[in-house]
Design brief:
By secondary structure, the protein is of the alpha/beta class. α3 runs parallel beside α4 and α9 packs across α11.
Length: 433
């Protein structure tokens, strides 16, 4: 198996310094300093093509580079590990700023040391994690009944908390109906990580480098694979290929947190695809495949009677799909005035559904909406907020294998009341939250 961690210790680069008079001198300095320039490109078009073939590399470009633009810079930043621009005047620095460049070096400053600067940038940027030495990573599926808001918020919070505890975490947005991880985190890119990874998998080319090309780093231990740019593109993500993504991710991460859509059943004819029945793609088959391969399933539900009713229906109908996984019910947005009543009702309900179900209660928190507004994680928004603390405790419980809630098996009047809804259909679908 390729060890990408060892390969990343050598600073291999692609340069595009056409038009820089001192290029030969800079190349000599780089070579003497242990920097290997694998490829030199003439213009932005050639650089873009090379970066697509050699993902995960480090790029240095000139502010004079022909055909360079903000759009090309955005694509490069999504493809490679880092992009730096070297400028030799105020005018060139201003031009680089119009490209929205993250790193701009001033080569005309007397104290400028290119080798030291590049090595400093390389050492400070997170590298792709090597395969775990002891065992394969664990898969956590974040699921729940239709209309249960907060799945994405919980998925991001759990991934961040696990990373803060020292785990190497990959968060994947696999919701084929309402993908929202990229929007919540403020990740602006036209390329869908999950679509690119699926294409690699279909071609049997999903190695560590190609997987690295499909993920975005949030913090040293926290990576994100973005979901579909548009829900209409769901046929591009097939369940078989996605299972290959999970298998490869297990080799490189301790925890793979997957945010999936609520629905599991495809309605005949809703896809309007004229194919033989065995060839028709199923929109929600990815969700089923994730649940079947999960080591832990978190069922996020609303903290009211409707949430309890949907939880009872959903678990009764589909609990067998993930029977071998550890299971936790996450009761979301519990108001402080209703804590005791909600706890009693859901502990009774979950005990009646399955004695193996653990229950986690997340408090209602005004900081949660600020995640999307400010494009921040819960920890960045307010690490001391009640919701962030509750999810952090949930992550700690996962790693330690503890259960915080006693199971109650006697049917409460609330559970008996729910039985009258057994014959009714679900309410219309809600957002992913």
């Amino acid at each position: 198996m390729e060890n990408f961690g060892e390969a990343s210790r050598a600073l291999n680069m692609v340069w595009a310094l056409n038009g820089v008079p001192a290029e030969a001198e800079l190349l000599a300095l780089a070579s003497a300093g242990g920097i290997v320039v694998r490829r030199r490109c003439f213009d932005a078009s050639e650089l873009l093509a090379v970066s697509a073939v050699v993902p995960g590399t480090h790029v240095l470009i000139s502010a004079q580079l022909a055909r360079m633009s903000r759009e090309i810079m955005s694509t490069l930043q999504a493809q490679v590990a880092s992009v730096a621009v070297i400028a030799f005047s105020d005018a060139e620095e201003s031009r680089a700023e119009t490209w929205n460049a993250d790193r701009i070096f001033r080569g005309d400053h007397p104290e400028f040391d290119l080798v030291a600067k590049l090595k400093q940038e390389h050492s400070s940027s997170p590298v792709w994690p090597p395969p775990p030495q002891t065992s394969l990573g664990q898969v956590c599926a974040i699921w729940g009944p239709i209309g249960s808001h907060g799945r994405t918020t919980f998925a991001i919070g759990l991934a961040e908390a696990l990373a803060d505890l020292g785990e190497r975490v990959l968060l994947i947005d696999a919701d084929t109906s309402a993908p929202s991880v990229a929007l919540t985190l403020g990740i602006e890119e036209d390329v869908s990580g999950i679509v690119v990874a699926t294409r690699y998998a279909e071609q049997n080319a999903l190695d560590s480098r190609s997987l690295a090309n499909c993920a975005r780093v949030i913090s040293p231990n926290f990576w994100v694979m973005t979901g579909l740019a548009s829900p209409q593109r769901w046929p591009e993500v097939r369940a078989g290929s996605f299972c290959k993504i999970i298998e490869r991710a297990r080799e490189h991460f301790d925890q793979i947190v997957i945010d999936v859509g609520a629905a599991l059943d495809d309605v005949e004819g809703e896809d309007r695809i004229e194919l033989a029945p065995t060839l028709v793609p199923r929109r929600h088959l990815v969700t089923r495949s994730v649940l079947e391969n999960a080591d832990q399933v978190y069922l996020v539900t609303r903290a009211d009677a409707l949430g309890a009713q949907r939880l009872a229906h959903t678990y009764s109908d589909h609990g067998s799909v993930f029977a071998g996984a550890r299971k936790s019910v996450v009761v979301n947005s519990v108001h402080k005035t209703q804590v005791r009543e909600v706890q009693r009702q859901f502990v009774d309900l979950c005990g009646a559904l399955d004695p193996e179900l653990n229950v986690v209660f997340l408090p209602q928190d005004s900081d949660a909406p600020g995640m999307v507004k400010n494009a921040r994680t819960l920890g960045e928004q307010n690490a001391r907020a009640p919701l962030a603390k509750a999810i952090r405790e949930c992550a700690d419980t996962r790693l330690r294998g503890r259960a915080h809630v006693d199971r109650v098996t006697d049917l409460s009047p609330f559970v008996k009341f729910l039985s009258i809804f057994r014959g009714h259909a679900y309410a219309p679908a809600g957002g992913n939250g």
